[in-house]
Amino acid sequence: MYDLETRKHALSLLDQGFSQNSVSTQTGISRAAIRSWLERIEPLGYKRGSECPRCGEASRPPDAPAAYSYLLGLYLGDGCISANKRGVYSLRIACADAWPGLIEACVEAVQIARPANKVCLVRSPGCQYVTCTSKHWPCFFPQHGPGKKHDRRIALELWQQKIVQAHPWEFIRGLIHSDGCRIINWTTRLVGGEPRRYEYARYFFTNLSADILGLFTSALDQVGVEWKQANSRNISVARRASVALMDAHVGPKY
């Protein structure tokens, strides 16, 4: 027989996204007992589901808003959320193998968002998916929905807007790390009658969603970065002062 606190603890682990096998290994409780508790919750006097930071009665912002602002940028660029049969959601963010520093930063941001949940790396040709399961991912990212992001409206909730306004550089950095880059352009100029190569840095952000492009440019406006829309899917930052600002707060991927 297991006491009430033991049963509550096991069910809380399930709510955090751990499998029945994992909970059984961690606690020493048989899987048969765990399955029986899932089928008869009310006699335990226990309401399943830990309070959500977004949808619970005592709603509050994420504990680390700066890290969340960065993670939001990553999610809007290269992230997706999918559900399994138990109603637990998996967040996946694709990170190219060429940027190990980006992978580390992404893992850290996800772990800060859900400190009680395990963050894993799933290898794929040319990239790694930073993954983490939690029943609360749609609450952290209400932009989640069926289909591709550029096929539906993307707008921030009021609480998200406040976080981005308070931490715009983290949001910009997350978007650049997901769907942006810093490149070196070059051209030639005549100096003393001789052609000389001239190089200059430029940032690009590419996304098919006009809404996400708008969120990016609004954040740039807030921090005083001048930008131009190169085409329907590309935002360019090329003016020297603006590139210097981006270098100071974002920098190239690494």
Describe this structure in words.
By secondary structure, the chain is of the alpha+beta class. The protein has 3 domains: 4-44; 65-153, Homing endonucleases (Endonuclease I-creI, Roll), CATH 3.10.28; 178-249, Homing endonucleases (Endonuclease I-creI). Helix content is 42%, strand content 24%. The protein is built from 10 helices and 8 strands. The protein has helices spanning 4-15, 20-27, 31-39, 65-78, 100-113, 137-140, 158-166, 168-179, 210-223, 240-249, and strands at 79-83, 89-96, 119-124, 127-134, 180-191, 194-206, 228-231, 234-237. The strands form 2 sheets. The chain has a 4-stranded antiparallel beta sheet. Strands 5-6-8-7 form a 4-stranded antiparallel beta sheet. β1 and β2 (89-96) form a beta hairpin. The longest helix is centred in the N-terminal third of the chain and has 14 residues, at 65-78.
